[in-house]
Specification:
Order of helices and strands: EEHHEHEHEHEHEEEEEEHEHHHEE
Shape: globular
Helix content: 25-40%
Number of strands: 15
Bound molecules: oxa(dethia)-CoA
Strand content: 25-35%
Oligomer: single chain
């Protein structure tokens, strides 16, 4: 009998109070305005982690909530995957640190996935392979980021866009269908349009340790591949966009969300939007949007969800699931 993978529970965590556009502009003396940011991006506020708070700290809170929602004890988890581009250390992984913070001592494998804003979809796709093969039964899949640490606060073209946070899901082996189809892709030839082109070398940072982006090039690429990969998973599951109850794209810019929904002929009211309150939280954005909508009662059990992300690399991917 086929082993299916379903979402047992969701959780998320946002650090501190929301920081409005006006507060951010004042704090960093930016030549910008609330009007420009809202009009071009839809972002009104974001959350920023306090100094010393790491991705694994945010992941811990989100994971506790997801485990509670799934009615699972940490020790039942037999696979931990954290999607992050802002891990606590070069190594060990944020996933290994999360395992320790959760007090899991059963030897469950724990590793990070680095696919920037597609990281959560990549991690879901990987976890589903393990569960579907029968090798694992209960996976904790997390997206956690402190992007505020890699922002150049003098670059108004990027620093107003991002935020910090974490989202998590517990994936369980099931005899009922859950994850229906997944696809993930990369094209490294576009590495130059979105990157943090620095590294640690001989005790110092070499290169540029801040996020650099050609916003317009990223925008065009994102809208195209998000539509393509959505069609790919819909075809794989033999479904149409009309059967999707909720579209949950990576939250980068409200204009990208609107353009993606339009290309898919999904009405805007069926597209989950949190970028206005979270900013772009990279790998955390999809599970944050998912958890918020589950807890608000917007997303109901049995509904069909289309999750999709695109990010640096370039990477992109989608997962179609019955919740
Ligand atoms: O997770 C994936 C990663 N990122 C994305 O998906 C982002 C994709 N790209 C975007 O969201 C948009 O391209 C941006 C929001 C980044 C920029 O919007 P845009 O409409 O493409 O603006 P632009 O880059 O063409 O800039 C227009 C003007 C420029 O001024 P000039 O050259 O026309 O005088 C910028 O310098 O807006 C200026 N500008 C700003 N003005 C006020 C750029 N950032 C700001 C700012 N405040 N924060």
């Amino acid at each position: 009998m086929k082993i299916h993978t379903r979402v047992g529970g969701t959780g998320s965590y946002l650090p501190g109070d929301p920081v409005s556009n006006a507060s951010l502009i004042a704090a960093h003396g930016l030549d910008s305005s609330d009007e420009w940011i809202v009009e071009r991006t839809g972002i009104r506020s974001r959350h920023l982690a306090a100094p010393g708070v790491t991705s694994s700290d945010l992941a811990l809170e989100a994971s506790r909530r997801a485990l509670d929602a799934a009615g699972r004890k940490p020790e039942e988890v037999d696979l931990i995957i954290v999607a992050t581009s802002t891990p606590d250390y070069v190594f060990p992984s944020a996933a290994a640190l999360l395992q320790s913070k959760l007090g899991i001592t059963n030897g469950a494998p724990a590793f990070d996935v680095q696919a920037v804003c597609s990281g959560f979809v990549y991690a879901l796709t990987i976890a589903e392979k393990f569960i579907g093969s029968g090798s694992h039964k209960c996976a904790l899949v997390v997206g956690a980021e402190v992007f505020s640490r890699i922002l150049d606060w003098k670059d108004r073209g990027t620093c107003v866009l991002f935020g910090d946070g974490a989202g998590a899901v517990v994936l369980e082996a099931s005899d009922q269908p859950g994850l229906l189809a997944s696809a993930f892709h990369a094209d490294g030839s576009h590495h130059g349009i979105l990157s943090v082109p620095g590294q640690l070398c001989g005790g110092v940072v070499t290169g540029d340790p801040f996020l650099r982006m050609d916003g317009q090039a990223v925008f065009k690429f994102a809208v195209k591949v998000l539509a393509d990969v959505a069609h790919e998973v819909l075809a794989a599951a033999d479904m149409t966009a009309g059967q999707v109850d909720w579209l949950i794209p990576h939250q980068a810019n409200v204009r990208i969300l609107q353009a993606t929904a339009k290309r898919l002929h999904v009405p805007p009211e069926r597209c989950i939007v949190t970028v206005d309150r979270h900013g772009n939280t990279s790998a955390a954005s999809i599970p944050l949007a998912l958890d918020e909508s589950v807890r608000s009662g917007q997303i109901q059990r049995g509904q069909h969800l289309l999750l999709e992300g695109v990010g640096g690399g370039f990477t992109w991917g989608a997962t179609l699931l019955r919740f």
